[in-house]
Amino acid sequence: MKAIGRRSVALAMLAVAGATSTHAERRISIEAYRDKMKGGWIGQIAGVSWAAPTEFKWKDAIMPATNMPPWTPDTINHAFGQDDLYVEMTFLRSLEEYGLDVPIRQAGIDFANSGYKLWCANAAGRKNLRRGIAPPDSSHPRFNRCPNDIDYQIEADYAGLISPGMPNSVIALGEKFGRLMNYGDGVYGGQFVGGMYAEAFFEADIQRIIAAGLACIPAESQYAEMVRDMVRWHGENPGDWEGTWKLCQKKYRETPEYQQASNGGIDVKINGAYVLMGLLYGNGDIDKTITISARCGQDSDCNPSSSAGVLCAALGFSRLPPRFTERLDLETKFSYTAYTWPGLIDTCEKLARQIVVREGGRVEKGADGKESLVIPSRAPKPSKLEFSWAPGPIANSAFTPEEYARVRFKPHPADVGGDDPTVRVQGAVDVLFPGWKTTPNGKDMSPGYREEYAGRSHVVMTHPLDRQTGATLSKRIDVPQGGSPRLEVIVANHAKGDFLFVARVDGEDVLRQKVGGEKAKWRSITIDLGAYRGRSAAVDLVNQPDGWSSEAAYWGAIEFKQ
């Protein structure tokens, strides 16, 4: 495929400095709008479907080219169950049902009532909403330990696809839906991506598309700094994306200043850089764009979904190779949504028409009966500058009793909130394993209640305090004289780690067993208490670190039997 035009380094830097259209109005036919909007959705679908098997398998490492899965025309239909797509369709549904003026609190209720599984900032934000913390506080760092995660960045595509040439609409949608789960750079990443989509309806040059996205976010933010770095490094190393990857790794992964409020490899800046890596070095080729973004590692299916989405919006559906479109399923609904492919496209067109009028534009019908969107060109007005590691005050926002009554999923009594992991663990233990007490837990992996883990419901997760100090659950048990007294424990490891399970009675080790393997697995462990008949025994169950990689323990049951 012919590459979308590359500019000189000087022109690229000028564009990224904030060049915008000087036209008073922009015009695009409904036919062309639908073509590009459909292209954007196909790009998302293709990117996430193709790279899904690679997700988080290469962390802080470049994936070998030989590990990129093959593409077949049927791969396009592997995305109907992808959270990269159905989460943002929740936001589309709120706009469709309640209108463009849907209050952020209603958006929060809709998100709280979603039935799919979530991770990272999405999970933290939704958990806050279900506890009654209304937006924007649901994403505030005081309540949400994942404010800079990638989540809204991978969900903001919809904002650009229904806002052709309207960056301020993209920014406003980010302030409404991005605030449900993200803060600071976490919001800016989504506004940047949405801004690129919005420009892709009118611009084919990737450098100018990036410049338009950059103009949508505060210039002083670290995310904006990352965008400028990526453009500069590409200009200095136009044929060496792996060299640029190393520069990016050194600054945005290994420098503490750029890891503040970071949740490791899910941080929005490093993954946003990998979106740009695909766009800048893909040279307008869909396969190359997806492959480079995927091979950068980390969230390696979300990132090519974003880069390919922007590229394919610029190209348009009609210019995509048939292998990306010929097998597309037109009847299956995206999981947890009301939308089939045709329904999704029609909904986006309907909302885009409304937004154009809302922004002061109009829909015109020509002499041939064909309609066009006439869109006023307005400079973007970015959100205010915020830093997740030095956040502003909270809004003290809470759902009213009437609003909270409409939240269908209330937290389980064991689901205790707060920033202190030990408090969260103890709150869960008090409900699920009465009488047991925990020692201090480390913050890694967010210990506490889990609604479900590895097929088991209502679980407590602990995490060692540090590399030497385990997390211990303790209880004094009065062991009766008769029977076969024993403690039966059901415990599991994290899918990507292991730990040492230690059982102590009256201070002495009675069992040491490694819990781990290639996947999460529940194990039943029996601790014989026969030697302690007729006595009161102090029992300690220890989640002891064994190395330092995903050292969490998941506790499904602790039962005394005889």
Condensed summary:
The protein is of the alpha+beta class and 562 residues long.
Question: What's the architecture of the largest domain, going by CATH?
Answer: Orthogonal Bundle
CATH topology name of the largest domain, in short, is ADP-ribosylglycohydrolase fold
The total strand number stands at 13
Q: Kindly state the percentage of residues in helix.
A: 25-40%
Average of pLDDT: 94
Radius of gyration: 26 Å
Number of domains: 2
Spatial order of strands in the largest sheet? 4-7-12-9-10
Strand content: 15-25%
Which stretches of 5+ consecutive residues score pLDDT under 50? 1-21
Terminus-to-terminus distance: 72 Å
CATH class annotation of the largest domain: Mainly Alpha
The helix-and-strand class reads alpha+beta
Q: What form results from the Cα inertia axes?
A: elongated
Largest sheet: 5 strands, antiparallel
Features:
ADP-ribosylglycohydrolase fold, five-stranded antiparallel β-sheet, alpha+beta, Jelly Rolls, elongated, disordered N terminus
